[in-house]
Amino acid sequence: MTKTANPAAWPRALFAILLAATAAWTLNQVRAPSTRVDFRSLSDLLAPAAPAQTEESGPAAPPFYLHASSPAEWNRAVRCLTDAIYHEAGDEPVEGRRAVAQVVVNRVRDPNFPKSVCGVVYEGWRRRTGCQFSFVCDGSIRRRPAAPWLWDRTRPLAVQALSGYVTPEVGASTHYYADYVRPNWLSSVDAVTKVGRQIFCAWRGRAGAVSALTGQYAGGELHVSDAALDGDPPPMMRTVLRMRFGRRRSDRLRIAEGSSGSGRG
Fold first, then answer.
1. What does CATH list as the number for 57-170+218-244?
2. Cα dist from 236 to 12, 118, 130, 243, whole Å
């Protein structure tokens, strides 16, 4: 006679299987704990996937994974990188926008630049000598606020660049310029590639090799002030503007007083 399974025993058997699987997973976590916490939001995780990486001639930079200390720091880093992509390459093809993101990531790992994403993008905001990225100091942030649909199109590229996506043709490039200008720092770099209308360059000699990207990400994304991200001029520039506009106002008052005086008597 054939035995039939007792339906009442099925829930207990299923529970035992789940309990065993949970115990095995917990033991594995204890043996090999993870030091990385993923602070990406649900929208970041559901963003369009990056295209598959392809083999390219020449050395590519290693993947970069942002190890943020909090969700706020992750979101600030993504915002700063999105700012750079939008303002520096918003009208470039997607390959050009990815290439600009790669330059920012390369600078984070280059010993010559700050060790945070926002620190790289907004470097020089408080200096009289000017900013590393022109949009930070030339008023573009206030003049050209990002349309929501453009921002939504650009943000996934930033998320992908901070989650391991590499633009291999850029190599160790830390600089770029439009093909219709000639910057004064050209003598210190070598051209690596051209993407769209941008020419990408790396330091000359060993400093421009992928192996020179030895800097370690240090965090501190929130150290860049909200005023910088909102496009406000730096404190020194605000003082200059107040002096300049104040002088113009006083000149206008003197002219008005002189005109009214000459009309009397």
1. 1.10.10.2520
2. 72, 20, 11, 11
On whether the CB atoms of residues 229 and 222 are closer than 8 A, the answer is no
**Could you tell me the residue ranges of all domains in the chain?**
57-170+218-244
How many Å apart are CA 202 and CA 64, to the nearest integer?
18
Residue matched to tokens 């997607």: 94
Write down the pTM of the prediction. 0.70
Residue 205 sits at the vertex; the CA angle it makes with 117 and 217, to the nearest 5 degrees, is 20
Q: What kind and span of H or E run contains 245?
A: helix 235-262
Looking at the predicted structure, is the pLDDT value of residue 105 above 70?
A: yes
Tell which residue, 234, 204, 221, 220, has the closest CA to residue 112. 204
Task: Give the Cα separation of 153 and 98 in Å (integer).
Answer: 12
pLDDT at 265: 36
Orientation angle between helical segments 71-89 and 94-109, nearest 10 degrees: 130
Nearest to 138 by CA among 15, 53, 234: 234
Tell me the C-alpha distance between 138 and 234, whole Å.
11
What are 137-147's pLDDT values in tens digits? 877 777 666 78
Distance of alpha carbon 110 from alpha carbon 208, whole angstroms: 9
Query: What is the DSSP secondary structure assignment for residue 5, as one 8-state letter?
Result: -
Report how far residue 80's alpha carbon sits from residue 222's, in angstroms, rounded to the nearest whole number: 10
